[in-house]
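Let's sit down with a protein and look at its sequence and fold side by side. We need material for that, and I hope you will provide a protein of your own picking. Once you have written the record down, we can walk along the chain together.

***
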Amino acid sequence: MGVRKDQERSLHRVVVTGMGAVSPVGTGTEKMWEALVRGASGIGPITYFDTTGFETTIAGEVRDFSPGDFLDRKQLKKTDRFVQLAVGASGMALADSGIEVTPELAESFGVVIGSGIGGLSTIEEFHNALLNKGPRKISPFYMPRLLVNMAPGHVSMTYGLKGPNACVVTACASGNNSLASAARMIMLGEATAMLAGGT
């Protein structure tokens, strides 16, 4: 990002005030950091689906995350796992920051969350339903569950954040690019605070 000389003085300072994590080595930044320091691996046998016939039967699965800690039963039915992971990590980051989202702050508190694919499990679920049971078994929530921008959308609705809302889709760089995008919005005064990351 280029900044002209006459803009330099008007840029706002950006600081990280809180963090949250949902990962194969642990849910929560403390668990994740302890595992990283120990050199623990999050790779293990796949349990999320039947691996019969697959050459690879290991992966980095998130095993200790309970989406019900962050979303109610209605929300769980309407969201793909990638959204649930984003809402959980975002809730942890907000709690870690100690920031109270007041009605005044909410107006300029935004969200940028990236994802390389979005609701892949939803695509698979409804593709199987279509093939095996026909088009009448496709839920009206099919599209809202799989769209990549549902992660920042649900995070903003869950935590009452009404500022800028965006999704970055740049494959494996989506999370990093989301952080940069959020920082830029704060620097340029487009938002007071941003929740950012990847899922």
In short: Residues 52 and 135 are 28 Å apart (CA to CA). The mean pLDDT is 93. The longest helix spans residues 81-97. DSSP finds eight helices and seven strands in the chain.
